[in-house]
Design a protein that fits this description.
232 residues, alpha/beta, Rossmann fold, 35% helix, binds adenosine-5'-triphosphate
Length: 232
C-alpha cells in the first residue's frame, strides 16, 4: 500500500544550518509512527517538513505517492495534514461548546451542530462539560479540547509534536487516551515524543533520530528488543 506520507532522503535546515541529513521514513495510512531522539535530533524539523512549514533542500516528500516537497502549509492542510497545537490552545474564558463552535466558524450553520455532536461522541467527557468554561477544565481535559478542536476538521494525518511536554504523568496518560481515541477514528498519527514509554505503547513503527540521521526505523517490537539507549 502507498504510504500516506513518505520522506525519501530528505535534507532540511534553517538557513546555513543543516538539521536533517538524508532522512527516509514512511507513515502508512491509519498507522501510528513514533519519532524519537534526543534534544536537537531533528524531530520537530521532520514535523515541520511534514506540514509544509520547512521546505526540504534535497530529497522528496510524498503524500499518497505524489511529490509534495516545496508545497506550502495550506496545501498540506488541504490534503488533511494537521499539526496539533502545542500547549492547551483553548480559549479559557469561553465554554467547551463555544470553543468548538469557534473551531467550526467557517462551516455552514446546518452542519455545525452535527460536527459538534461528533466531537462529543468522540470525547464524551467534553460533552458532559459542554457549558463549563475551558479555563476551569483539568490540564488533560484542556488538551483533549485542543485536540477535539483539531479533530472537527477530520484530519487524515495528525502531527503531534511533544503534546505531553511539561505535563504531570497522570495528565500525559489522559493525553494518550485521547490519542488512542483519535487513532481509532482511522486518522494516521505522527507522534514526536520524549515520553518513550507512552509513544511505544501506541505506535506500530518507530523512527529513532540521532543528529539529523535515522538511527533506527522499524516495528516497535524490534526497537524494544534492542538496547536503543533511550531513557524510558
Ligand atoms: P527537541 O527534542 O529539543 O525539541 P528536536 O529533535 O525536535 O529537539 P529540532 O527542533 O528539529 O530538534 O532541531 C534540530 C536542530 O535544528 C537543532 O540543532 C536546533 O537548534 C536547530 N533549529 C531548530 N529550529 C531552528 C530555527 N528556527 N533556526 C535555526 N536552527 C533551528
Amino acid at each position: 500500500m502507498t504510504p500516506v506520507l513518505e520522506f525519501r532522503e530528505v535534507h532540511a535546515g534553517y538557513g546555513p544550518f543543516r538539521a536533517l541529513f538524508g532522512v527516509s521514513l514512511a507513515l502508512e495510512s491509519g498507522r501510528v509512527l513514533a519519532l524519537l531522539g534526543s534534544n536537537g535530533a531533528g524531530k520537530t524539523t521532520i514535523a515541520r517538513v511534514a506540514s509544509g512549514l520547512v521546505c526540504p533542500t534535497q530529497g522528496s516528500v510524498l503524500i499518497d505517492g505524489a511529490e509534495f516537497g516545496g508545497k506550502r502549509p495550506w496545501e498540506f492542510a488541504r490534503e488533511g495534514f494537521v499539526h496539533a497545537p502545542e500547549g492547551r490552545s483553548v480559549f479559557g474564558s469561553l465554554t467547551v461548546s463555544e470553543n468548538l463552535q469557534l473551531a467550526l466558524r467557517f462551516r455552514h450553520k446546518a452542519t455545525l451542530s452535527v460536527c459538534i455532536d461528533k466531537a462529543y461522541d468522540l470525547f464524551p467527557r467534553l460533552g458532559e462539560r459542554r457549558l463549563q468554561l475551558a479555563g476551569t477544565l483539568s490540564g488533560g481535559e484542556q488538551r483533549m479540547l485542543a485536540l477535539a478542536r483539531v479533530m472537527v476538521d477530520e484530519p487524515r494525518v495528525l502531527i503531534a509534536d511533544e503534546l505531553s511536554l511539561g505535563l504531570a504523568p497522570i495528565i500525559v496518560d489522559e493525553v494518550y487516551e485521547t490519542l488512542r481515541v483519535i487513532q481509532n477514528t482511522g486518522t494516521s498519527l505522527l507522534i514526536v515524543e520524549q515520553h518513550v514509554g507512552h509513544a511505544l505503547a501506541i505506535a506500530e513503527t518507530v523512527v529513532m533520530l540521532d543528529r539529523g540521521r535515522v538511527q533506527f526505523d522499524g516495528p516497535v517490537a524490534d526497537f524494544a528488543s534492542q538496547d536503543a539507549g533511550v531513557p524510558r
